[in-house]
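DM from R.C. (forwarded with permission)

"hey, sorry to bug you on a friday — could you get me a structure for this? deadline for the figure draft is monday and I only need the backbone to look sensible"
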Amino acid sequence: MLPRTLDLQDAFTAPEPDQWRALVEADLKGAPFERRLVTHTYEGIHVRPLYTRADWDRGGGSSGVGSLTRAARPLGNVGRGWDTRQEYSDAAPDAAAESIRDDLDGGVRSVVLRFDACARSGLDPRNPTGANLAGRDGIAAYTSDDLDRVLEHCDLGATPVFLECGSAFVEGAALLGDVWRRRGLQDRGVRGGFQADPLAVLARDGSLPYSTAEGLDRLGRLCAWSVERYPLVQSLRVGTAAYHHAGATATQDLAFSMATAVEYLRATERHGLAIDAAAPQLLFSYAVGCHMFLAIAKLRAARRLWARVVEACGGSEDSRRMSMYVRPSKRVLTTRDQWINMLRSTACVLAAGIAGADAIACTPFDSPGGDASPLARRLARNTHHLLLGECHLARVCDPAGGSWYIESLTDELCDKAWVIFQAIERRGGMSRSLEDGWIQAQIDSAVQPRLRNLATRKDVIVGVSEFPDPGEHRRQARPVDRAAITSDACRRLASRPRTPRLPSSAGDAGQVDFATLLNAAAEGASVAELSILLGSSRTEPTQLPSAIHVHPFAEPFEHLRDAADEFAEHHGHRPRVFLAGIGPLAARLARINFCRDLFEAGGFEVIDSPDSDGTIDAVRTEFEKRPAPIVVICGPDDACDAAVPNLGPMLRSAGARRIILAGNPGAREPSLRKAGVDLFVYIKCDMVSLLGSLLAEEGVHL
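My reply, with the result:
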């Protein structure tokens, strides 16, 4: 009979880690423990299979309370949830307005407006260069009238608005300020963000239309003005998405954000702002991938590092609290089998929610292929509702706190990121390290091992490099009539009720204050005219030695698939490969499945004969029925060694141009090549190079 009170802790003796390890090593039967059970991250962290209290030497059981690791507030998002934020880049202002209305009706709390490449460069479509950029990668909004049109369905008194205006962040601030004013809102009560982030623009675009020094000066002046006029608006952003999309590790991402933030604090200090006034103006924007535990630890580490930076600058405890916005990284999303993007984005949002992010965006699953569909937007916002309403993530503060693994991982990320941050500071800061190419070199060095593992399929991408859908009908992006968008924008600019009167100080940035910019925006001035008023041409542009390029993990395989699809459009079929199964089905099945996945990931049509008995005669019969220029022999080594001398010449005479053997030949390679084998495919091969060369031989244009 069970006792009334059951105490399992007293019923079992607590095992020691050494006892556990002895049992595990016995099960490994001589295989090295470190090689089989310890994994290694791209940050240089060795992840063990078991963590205990002894592994967290600095936590003291506090779970990050004292160091602000857990959240910006003592209870984090408990009781209110995070800010469900969404980003908009529909080219047509009316389309963007409709997307915003649908999302706000569906529960989105704040919006991020991405201006098009024309406005982000400080131009408008009347300029020949601007016309070529109009409607590209963002909303074609150039005046406060355009912006008011985009926000037509938005209650600006209740919904914070954040801008992505690229190098034209001051001009964008003037447009939004005028919209707030014409809506009758009190300046000191509006919420949102201007998101001035010139170093992120420089990293992403590889250039700025003015010097880096002037960009930082504008940032400092904007921040000083915003603190005085819009105290609830965050004027600055520290965005690291460009680095993360390019393949930066978590430690690099953290270090770059801290170095950027310090650079911005110095710029605000030059304009008279104390640390306690400037620090709350910074919004930290991070992208996270699908490695959930690493993402959680990274976001928790970011708060601890920022608290340490502000403390070193003499900031108060309140100013050490980080404001954090998180979104899924572009590098983990795919244009193929896009439904799986829902799982990837959910993992990212879940990690951000567990880590206590203040605001989170969920990327619509089909957005990598163009403008997001209404269905994808609805599913994206419902992801928040499910995690908050059904998973109750906002009922617990810091769910990861106290996990010995997460706490230890957070510590290690902090330590390694701090070393990189100090190296940047010794080099003269983030802007100098960007301008001389050091940041790019660090990212390139870090991303190469990952790209190799992706190419060899050691790191798999479900639906792309592993388990591809050969019959997938790729979603066609909604066509954007950029000519019509440009024409409509020019018509709006030409039909303004009055021509803006630019002050005589136009072009002299030292005499232009923000009140003047606001008045010019109210007069109907476009981004380009505000840019002239600021005097953008008074300094030389900044140009990086090389831009920081986005590296979507799936890109190499998707490029092969795209090329194969184009081939199919012209020839009526995709490039073909025949899998010749040798030996008993059970013995050959693993290699057949491996090769089917591999070649379908490259866009090939795979011809297989699952009912074959695995004999040479059966292979000959099937090949004569459905020939292909490429044949892959799949089977156990002994069966293949016996069959290849006879099978190779037979396949050649029947029309096979390339004969490939599945499996690592090792010392057997010379004899197998002599028997007619051209290539070998096996785990650890560079699959992207192999598939690319075979496609090229078939006449596919890569």
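R.C.: lifesaver. The chain is about 45% helix and 10% strand.
me: no worries. Residues 555-697 form a domain with the Rossmann fold fold (CATH 3.40.50.280).
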